[in-house]
Design brief:
Number of strands: 3
Structural class: mainly alpha
Number of helices: 31
Strand order of the largest sheet: 1-3-2
Helix content: 55-70%
Shape: globular
Radius of gyration: 28 Å
């Protein structure tokens, strides 16, 4: 038709490209689904409009309301925004309510169906649609599709090729990957860290079923998943101990969190807890920088089963216990456990991490010079200059500003190709020392630290940089910008469960609130005093805070101030944070 007439134009829909020279491809993606945090029943997108339209065909009274909007959005998210899946799900509202429909989606392939006499067989249910597409795949592409279903975070091209090698696939994995993408069984997603190949959850569930039908295949795929996770963790460890060229962007590892989570489940199922402990140790500094409470939770789970470990694995779990104790405010226990790791003659990197945990715990306890010594030992074992940088900060806090500045000057070379964490740390500490010295360069240093953290996704260091920057903005009289920054930080620390950092942020926010809401400031400070996860303050900071408290007590009136401070003992953390956010939002 195309070659026979110059004016012929054909619009064709197809499961995969037609592969004609004249073809211009336009790939139809799933419908965009609103974020659950941005649900507005009055202005929902095409995905929710489609659900609503199809639902009204079987229930004329159905409407999207503020009460059910979040549930509908959740349904559409679980269905990947696929129009057919949404139509099939909505058609079941003739017999099921929204809540019951949501419950059936745990078996999504079999739960979503309809019984229309004029519908193609492959459109009668979600399972039949997926099976139809699966049967049309070349036989040699199916094993790769099945295996990739066990990687919920998707894979990069190099990892797909490695997976093919682990599976013993003789064909070119690159070519098989292209076939899966052309057949819309995989989606190529471009991002800052390159292209990843992901699978919609609906397809992933189907592929996982195929893997589980054969125990031998399942064992091979599970091993491939574990080896992938272990390679990621080892590469993360090497990025600290190797050359700058080995540094992995934190964002690339963050993309792998779903795969790491899946590997963790396999390790638990197979009883490979020693391997999980080693993986968690290799990810220690990433876990700290990523501010992921979920990964801290893995430490807690392993520590709770400490009696099941022996040898090197027991030492690994003891190292994880130092972070668990530190996060819980059990600083003496964290230091004692770190000493046990050091005495066990662990590997140089494990011992270095134990000294790092000692330094952090001593910093939180207000033992500044002890933290300096511990970080120096970390540097000696790791070959890094993290200790010199943060040791300079501790010396500055201890009042030894000249010594601190001289120490930081010796770290200037990290700015030329050093690990991003050290570069960001250098700018942060430079800002802290400038602030202590009353220098106007403090803000510029903090802003450089923030920029480095944003570029490399260093969320922990980003948080502490922004705490100091927010305090500086408040001191300069820019209350609105300071309050906005404090609100964002509080929400960040809440998501990660990093209460030591959250209390630091709240204490600083209390200074901003002292004039406009002195009662909330007093509540924050008194609550921090009674929480073991709040870090200790040095003498100068404690004296400064006590002066602010006295001022707030006078503004509130002595009787009211006493009631507020006494109420801190029975006020939950959640209520303290909520009250602080209300007060800060009133400013911003």
């Amino acid at each position: 038709l195309l070659s026979g007439g110059d004016s012929a134009v054909i619009l064709a829909t197809s499961r995969e490209p037609l592969r004609l020279p004249e073809e211009h491809r336009y790939r139809l993606a799933p419908l965009p689904v609103p974020d659950l945090d941005d649900v507005d029943a009055s202005s929902l997108g095409p995905c929710i409009q489609l659900f609503s339209d199809r639902a009204r065909r079987v229930d004329a009274e159905f409407r999207i309301t503020p009460d059910n909007a979040a549930l509908v959005v959740g349904l559409c998210q679980r269905l990947d925004g696929l129009p057919l899946a949404i139509e099939l799900a909505a058609s079941r509202l003739g017999s099921l309510g929204l809540v019951e429909l949501a419950e059936t989606l745990s078996h999504r392939l079999d739960a979503i169906y309809r019984d229309h006499r004029d519908a193609d067989a492959r459109h009668q249910s979600l399972r039949s649609t997926v099976e139809w597409s699966y049967r049309l795949l070349p036989d040699r592409a199916r094993p790769l599709f099945d295996a990739m279903s066990r990687f919920p975070g998707g894979l990069r091209l190099a990892d797909v090729i490695a997976l093919g090698e682990r599976l013993g696939i003789d064909d070119d994995a690159d070519a098989l990957l292209s076939q899966l993408v052309d057949a819309s069984m995989l989606h190529a997603v471009d991002g800052p860290q390159g292209r990843r190949y992901r699978m919609l959850e609906t397809l992933r569930h189907f592929g996982a079923e195929q893997v589980e039908q054969d125990d031998d295949v399942s064992a091979v795929v599970d091993r491939a998943l574990l080896e992938h996770a272990q390679a990621l963790a080892a590469a993360e460890r090497d990025s600290w101990t190797g050359s700058p060229a080995a540094v992995r962007p934190a964002r690339s590892l963050r993309d792998e969190i779903p795969n790491l989570r899946a590997a963790r489940e396999v390790m638990f199922d197979h009883g490979e807890l020693a391997a999980l402990a080693r993986l968690s140790v290799d990810l220690t500094l990433f876990t700290e920088q990523a501010c992921l409470g979920e990964l801290w939770g893995w430490h807690d789970e392993l520590v709770a089963r400490r009696s099941e470990f022996e040898g090197d694995a027991a030492v690994d779990v003891d190292l994880l216990a130092t972070t668990a104790d530190r996060n819980a405010g059990r600083l003496d226990s964290a230091i004692a456990m770190a000493n046990a790791v050091i005495e066990a003659s662990a590997s140089p990197w494990t011992e270095a991490l134990a000294w790092h945990q000692t330094a952090m715990s001593r910093l939180y306890a207000g033992e500044l010079l002890g933290a300096v010594d511990a970080w120096d030992r970390f540097d000696q074992l790791s070959g890094l200059c993290v200790g010199r940088i943060f040791g300079a900060m501790c010396l500055g806090y201890a009042g030894r500003l000249d010594e601190a500045e001289a120490r930081l000057d010796r770290c200037h070379l990290v700015l030329d190709g050093g690990h991003p964490f050290m570069v960001a740390g250098y700018h942060y500490v430079a800002g802290e020392l400038a602030r202590l010295a009353g220098s106007p360069t403090a803000r510029e240093s903090f802003e450089r630290g923030v920029a480095t953290c944003l570029e490399h996704d260093l969320r922990f260091t980003l948080g502490i940089c922004r705490v100091s920057l927010a305090s500086l903005l408040a001191a300069e009289g820019d209350d609105r910008a300071a309050a906005t920054t404090f609100v964002e930080l509080i929400e960040q620390w809440l998501r990660s469960g990093a209460w030591p950092q959250l209390w630091i942020t709240l204490r600083n926010a209390g200074e901003l609130l002292a004039e406009v809401d002195p009662a909330t400031s007093l509540l924050i400070w008194a609550s921090a005093d009674s929480d073991p996860q709040a870090t200790a303050m040095d003498a100068d900071a404690a004296e400064h805070l006590e002066k602010l408290r006295e001022t707030c007590r006078e503004r509130c009136g002595r009787d009211e101030a006493e009631l507020v401070e006494k109420s801190a003992r029975r006020t939950s953390r959640k209520d303290v944070v909520s009250r602080a956010l209300v007060a800060l939002n009133a400013i911003s």
